[in-house]
Amino acid sequence: MVPTPGIQLVRPSRGVILAIGAVVLALIVIGFVVTLGQPAPVAGRGQSLMRIPAPPSDLGTLLRRLGVGSVAWYACALAIPPLWWLAYRFPLTGPHAARALSLHLSAVLAMIGAASVAHYVRAYGGSPVAPAFLGFLPVALASNAVPLLAVAAVVHGLEARRRAVRSALETQRLRAELADSRLAAVTAQLQPHFLFNTLQSISTLIHRDPMAADAMLVKLSDLLREVLRRSQSGLVPLDDEIHMTETYLDLARIRFGDRLRVVLDIEVATRRALVPVLLLQPLVENALKHGVGRIAAGGSVGVSSHRVDGHLALTVWDDGAGLDRAVPDESTGLGNTRERLRHAFGDDQALTLRPRPAGGVEVSIRVPLRFAAAGPS
Length: 377
Known about the structure:
Elements: H1 14-35, H2 59-65, H3 71-89, H4 97-124, H5 133-205, H6 210-230, E1 235-237, H7 238-256, E2 260-266, E3 274-276, H8 281-290, E4 299-308, E5 311-318, H9 332-345, E6 350-355, E7 361-368
Parallel strand pairs: 2-4
Antiparallel strand pairs: 1-3, 4-5, 5-7, 6-7
């Protein structure tokens, strides 16, 4: 499978950006309103500047200075669940973003009002010298609006990030499923292709050479059993792939007889390297059909593997009719092979078709060297 790239978070929607900007602007405005008209104290005759309070002597004093236990503290703690539910249920995206934004702002304003009332009751508790509520309201707003707006902004930011991550994961899942579906379609197209060709060869031998036809059926059953066993595997060790290719070449030997010679040159260090299942079979089939099969005297088909600069180099060659009469590069076999290599290794792979100097055609494949669990690291 193509290496999956790092997850890219989806950019927040315009509604989320506007909501966060509105909260920040509200915080700035509230800060100016609270401090407006309050000049900094100036030390004059008989006056002194406010002293910096001493460091807290115990944990309780520190927590009280941080606001723990205040009305704003409890208001923020109680506001988190409903604010998160609103952010989850009514996201600031889609066609109803404006309506959702007004709903969120109304909820935050209602929470600020409720916190201000609770602040007034807790501060004065029905005292006869309590000021009027409207006179106390600016102080309550300054104490409760900023924390609640900050909590609302954090909740919406976290919910927007959660939605972005979920959207990115869903996108990656759909891409992986699409890639798997395309690979399954390619493999389904590949397996009947060589199966029908082999059955056609058996049918031509039934009356001419029944023993050879029977031997081909036995070999075909062995090959199909191995293919079915490996059909759920995306990548298999090269050793298993060579074994399936040898079984297929045994079928070809029965059909071609002495006209076919097989040359295998498999480097031991590459036998545990991982390759797509049924990678070599269509290339060998092309070499037999369009190379050796077009010459009355037959010829040789070879498969080799080597390590080259941290990559696995595979070559399938024949000394048959040559490229002019060989299968074109856009054939089903080569096209499917290119697609499967791209699916398995992304851009870090290559497939090249070229004529051999001594005659015939060779197909070279270069893929990253990855090993099965039992192989070298």
